[in-house]
Write a structure and sequence with these properties.
Elements (H helix, E strand, L loop, with lengths): L1 E4 L4 H12 L4 E5 L12 E4 L5 H7 L5 E4 L6 H17 L4 E7 L9 H16 L3 E6 L14 E4 L5 E2 L4 H13 L7 E4 L5 E2 H12 L4 E4 L18 H12 L9 H6 L6 H7 L1 H5 L4
Parallel strand pairs: 1-2, 1-4, 2-3, 4-5, 5-6, 6-9, 7-11
Antiparallel strand pairs: 8-10
Bound molecules: NADP nicotinamide-adenine-dinucleotide phosphate.
Length: about 280
């Protein structure tokens, strides 16, 4: 059985939708069953990562498990991931497919890339076969970097290979279906790497916005829109940009196309599909 977490969210939701459409039986782990009711064809277990007894109801020996990362501070993320991995390992999970981040490493600049690496290590240490899907920054995250149409951030002239969450969901579904991906690490990136300046200009040319970018390293003016905990996670947002500046987010691969058969889509599609996200960048 394939077990999918995060299906009430974007990446897990797209993966679950594709698996159900192709007739693959799946079990969902969700925190709110009502929000998963539209997945008519799936078994549903209600559990939070920090509820081992409930998670254990959903993961059985030999299952292939998609593990979404939780979007929290470094320590909170690691605590919940540790509980989930331990429970899945104790249940005898056959493989964990973990949603990680490009250039994850203990000495990565980006705070979240450190916790992603530590989670990968946790899964290796638990002895469960794995597939790691290391993604770039989401195209959907880009609008949140602007406040009133302006991004003041320390990304310098470094570039990022913004990736589509829909493409990631398709890649997740592909690796869940096929055990041959065990032991592999893929880098799921967009088709090109753009600087913040180039990103602003690209979006402006497509949808008529007037987005601007300045290379500024100042926590006082750094935008915190979209962060689940704007105070505790401000420094992680800063390191997101400093890691761009030093080239830790610029990888471009063809792994999405290799896994799904469809080339990764550029940020153009996201801007054209969701122009309001770039037009209404809050204050
Ligand atoms: N690469 C990037 O640019 C980037 C940007 C932001 C976040 N991320 C990471 O990528 C992940 C997936 O992205 P996404 O867009 O699909 O996120 P999303 O739409 O926010 O979905 C996150 C999913 O994780 C579930 N979840 C959160 N905490 C949980 C917990 N403690 N126990 C069980 N389930 C939990 C959520 O459940 P509920 O619906 O109940 O909340 C939701 O289904 C995020 O969670 C975050 O860690 C990456």
């Amino acid at each position: 059985m394939i077990v999918v977490t995060g299906s009430t969210g974007h990446v897990g939701g797209e993966a679950a939708r594709l698996l159900i459409e192709s007739g693959v039986p799946i079990r969902l782990i969700v925190r709110d069953a009502v929000r998963a009711a539209h997945f008519g064809a799936a078994e549903i277990t209600v559990a939070d990562y920090n509820q081992p007894d409930a998670v254990a109801q959903a993961v059985h020996a030999g299952d292939t498990v998609f593990m979404v990362s939780v979007y929290e501070t470094h320590d909170e993320r690691l605590g919940k991931h540790e509980q989930f991995v331990r429970t899945a390992a104790d249940a005898g999970a056959g493989r964990i497919v973990y949603l990680s981040f490009i250039n994850s490493a203990l000495d990565a600049d980006f705070i979240h890339a450190v916790s992603h690496f530590e989670t990968e290590q946790m899964i290796r240490d638990a002895g469960v076969p794995f597939t790691f899907l290391r993604t770039s920054l989401y195209q959907a995250a880009v609008p949140f970097f602007y406040v009133d149409g302006h991004a003041a951030a320390p990304a310098g002239t470094g570039s990022a290979s913004w990736v589509s969450r829909r493409d990631i969901g398709a890649a997740v579904a592909a690796v869940l279906r096929d055990e041959n991906h065990a032991g592999e690490t893929y880098e799921l990136t967009g088709p090109e790497a753009l600087t913040m300046q180039q990103t602003s200009e690209r979006v402006n040319s497509l949808i008529g916005t007037t987005l601007t970018y300045d290379d500024v390293d100042d926590l006082a003016t750094l935008g915190t829109r979209g962060l689940p905990d704007p105070v505790a996670m401000k420094e992680s947002r800063r390191t997101c940009f400093t890691s761009i500046a030093i080239g830790q987010q610029s990888n471009v691969t063809d792994h999405i196309e290799r896994l799904t058969g469809i080339p990764a889509s550029p940020i153009d599609r996201h801007a054209l599909n969701y122009p309001e996200q770039f037009r209404n960048t809050g204050s």
